[in-house]
Amino acid sequence: MALGAWMVIGVVSFGMGFIGMWYLVMHTYPTELIQALFLSLLAVALAGLTLVVAGALHQRFARPNWLRRDPLRLLREGVSVALFGVLCSWLQKEGLLSLTLMLIIGGVLMLTETFFLTRGGE
What we know:
Helix content is about 85%, strand content about 0%. The protein has helices spanning about 5-25, 30-60, 65-70, 75-95, 100-120.
């Protein structure tokens, strides 16, 4: 898939996630189902925003033909950022989040991405 298509998918998913979260906050009561739906929409919005930002950064700083060598890189990075954001949000809601735990989760996700990049030859 071309970089432009990834960017369009990112903008649309960020917009849908943001509008969905806004609607939930403004028009619903915080039940368990609504909280789960909010975290799901947060994941969609974060993944979409990451697709746009990471696509622009990779286009500027990565090696030529990076998208052909690793076509799922943007999707993998978007899912990683969405997982980090949702996991930290859920832990904060439960009162369990600390800076140490946040750094550990982020470090593990960065190490997995580093593993994928080094195994891919870049």
